[in-house]
Amino acid sequence: MAEYCVDLVAQLRRKINEPTENKYTTTVLFNDYIYPNVIYSGEDGSAYDLDAAAAVIWADKVSLQQNTEYAINMVKYFSSKRVPRTSEWEKDPEEDDTEFDEVDYIINE
Q1: Which pLDDT score is estimated for 82?
Q2: 20 to 30 A from 33, CA-CA: which of 6, 23, 63, 89?
Q3: What pLDDT does 16 receive?
Q4: Residue 65 φ then ψ, to 5°
């Protein structure tokens, strides 16, 4: 595994409080939780949202009943730090360029 992958997993391990491979192996963390974020590239050039990965893992811990109150707080914390997600809106192809005022006038006649 490349050195940058090991560094990403080490950062994620600190965020999820799992310093050993007892529950999450390095391979599982990198392949299943750390995924490229094509929308955002950080100031350091990284294109991975480790906060989103940490939020998902903490949510898994909540479902496994591991110190639930603390885990819920960590889900909230890392979810608030994750990269904002947006969706691209497309105009309906059948929609014309009529202004709203014109439509309102036509309907109210």
Answers
A1: 75
A2: 89
A3: 92
A4: 60, 40
> Can you list the alpha helix ranges (DSSP code H) found in the chain?
3-16, 26-28, 50-63, 68-81, 100-108
Cα 79 to chain centroid, rounded: 7
Residue 72's contacts (CB-CB under 8 Å, 6 or more residues apart) are 58, 62
All residue ranges of the chain with pLDDT < 50 are 103-109
Parse the chain into domains and list their residue ranges: 3-81
Mean pLDDT of the chain: 75
Do residues 49 and 40 lie in contact, with contact meaning Cβ atoms separated by under 8 Å? yes
pTM above 0.85, yes or no: no
The count of other CB atoms within 10 Å of the CB of residue 53 is: 24
Give the residue carrying structure tokens 């105009």.
91
